[in-house]
Write a structure and sequence with these properties.
Blueprint lengths: L10 H20 L8 H17 L23 E3 L9 E2 L2 H15 L5 E8 L2 E8 L2 E7 L5 E3 L2 H4 L17 E10 L1 H13 L8 H9 L4 H6 L2 E9 L10 H11 L8 E4 H15 L7 E8 L2 H7 L1 E2 L2 E2 L2 E5 L3 E14 L5 E12 L2 E7 L3 H7 L6 E6 L6 E5 L24 E2 L8 E2 L6 H12 L11 H10 L5
Helix pairs in contact: 1-2, 3-9, 12-13
This protein binds 2-(butylsulfanyl)adenosine.
Amino acid sequence: MTIELHTQLIDEERYPILCQSLRLHASLYYVFDDPIILDSEYDDLFRAVQALEAIHPDWVTPESPTQKVGGKIRDGLKSVTHERPMLSLPTKTKSTDAHAFHESVKKELGTDAVAYTAELKYDGLAISLKYEHNTLVRAATRGDGTTGEDVTLNALVIAGVPRTLTGNDLPEDIEVRGEVVMLRSDFQALNAAQQEAGKKAFVNPRNAAAGALRVLDPKITEARKLVFLGYTVLADDLESMGSTHSETMVWMKQQGFSTGEERRVVTGEKGMLEYYDHIATIRATLPYEIDGVVYKVDNFEDQEKLGFISREPRWAIAHKFPPERVLSKLLAIDIQVGRSGVQTPVARLEPTFVGGVFVSNATLHNFDGIKTKDVRVGDYVYIERSGDVIPAVVGPELSKRDPNSLAFSVPSACSCCGSALSQEDDEVAMFCTGGSICSAQSLGRLEHFVGRRMMELDGWGDKVLSALHDQLGITQ
Ligand code: IVH
C-alpha cells in the first residue's frame, strides 16, 4: 500500500483529507499496533499536514492530528455485580425432552396435574432492572451472569420499562428481569436507513438491539426504539405480587412493564407440546423474533421444592425451535476476500423469506464444503437460519437439479487481485498471497478498524470506506 498526498488538490481540499488520513493511521499505529503504511510514509503524511498548517496557521486547532498524536479507545460502560446471579435455562430441542422434564417434575412434586406457564423465548438480550423503594435505580446487562454492564440511563428510554412502581405493600427491593428486543418492523426500518446512508446493515434484530443498548449515549438507544419484555420478578418476599409465575406476570403488566404475547397456563406434557405447535405456526407473525418457548412450573412453592442444579432451574426448560430451513435457487457463487486474504464462497440466492427476514446471500463456508456437498450454480439449495447465525447453505435438493449443470471448480487465484492462493496442509481455508497489493484485504482491514469490534466509528459505511480507501491510494 502507498500513501497518496493529493498534491494536485488545492490546500483547502487537501487539508481535511490528509488530516482524516493521518488520524486513521495514527490510531492504527498507536492504539492498535497495526499500521498499514510504512513509518516513512506516515512521516511524509505528518509532514504534509504540518506544512499546510505552517502556511495556514489559523487552521490549527487542539483537535488537529499534529497536536494530538495517538488515539483513545472510548471509555467502557461501568461493570455491575448482580446481587443474584443471572442464570440460564436448560435448553432442549426435542419433544422427548419436554416429556423427560415433565416426568422429573411429576416425580418430585408427587402429582400428575402440574400447571406450567408456557411463554415465548425471546431472542434478545437479558437485562436486570433493580427497583428500590418503587424507583428504578439500576439496569444491568447479563454479562457473564455474575457481572454485567451498567445501562441504567439507556434503560430509561426503552419502551415497557416503568421508572416507578405503584403499591404501598411492595418489598423495598425488587428486581425485574426480561429481554430487550428490537421489533422486526423497527429492525427493517433501521437497516433501510443504514443502507440509505451507505452504512453497514445489522445482521439481525438481536445484534441491532445489543448494539443499541450497550452504548454510552442513551440518545442512540432511544433512536433505535428498543422494547423490554419482562419474564421474572425477584424479591425476598413475592407475596404482594402473587404466588404463581402467571400472577406475577399480571402484576408486571399492571405496573407498566411489557410482558409479550401468547402466554398461557397449560397442564402437563400435552399442554406444553400443544403450545409449542401453536407457537411454531404463528412464529413468523409475531412482532419480534423468538427462538423457542419456555415452560415454567407455575407455582412458586413448587419451584422452590424443585430448586436448582448446577446453576440451572429444575422447574423450567427452554424448548427451542429447530433452525428454519427453506429452498432457494442458487444464482451464483461469489468469492469474498477477507482482511486476512481468506477466500469465502458466498451463495447469491433468489431472495427467500427465512427466519423472519429476506435472505439473498448465504455462506458456503469454504471450497471443501461445496465439493463435498456438490453444490452447483442453478441448484435449488436448502438455506438454514437460526438465531444470530449467518444464513448457511445446507445442501442441494438433487431431485430439482438441471442435468446440464456443471460441478463447481475451485479457483487457483484470488478473486480480487489474481494472486496465487495458498492452503495450509491441514486447513480447509484458502488465502490470497497478494498481501498489501490486494485491495480487498486492505479494504477489509479498514472496515475492521472502523467497525464495532475496534473503533466503533459512526458514519463509516461501505461508500465512505471505499472512498477513503481510494483516497488513501491503495494500489493493486
Ligand atoms: S427465564 C433461570 N423466560 O433465555 C433463568 N428466560 O438461558 C430464568 N429468555 O438468558 C430465565 N425468553 O435471557 C426466561 N420467557 C423467558 C425467556 C428467557 C428469553 C432468555 C434469557 C436467558 C436465556 C435462557
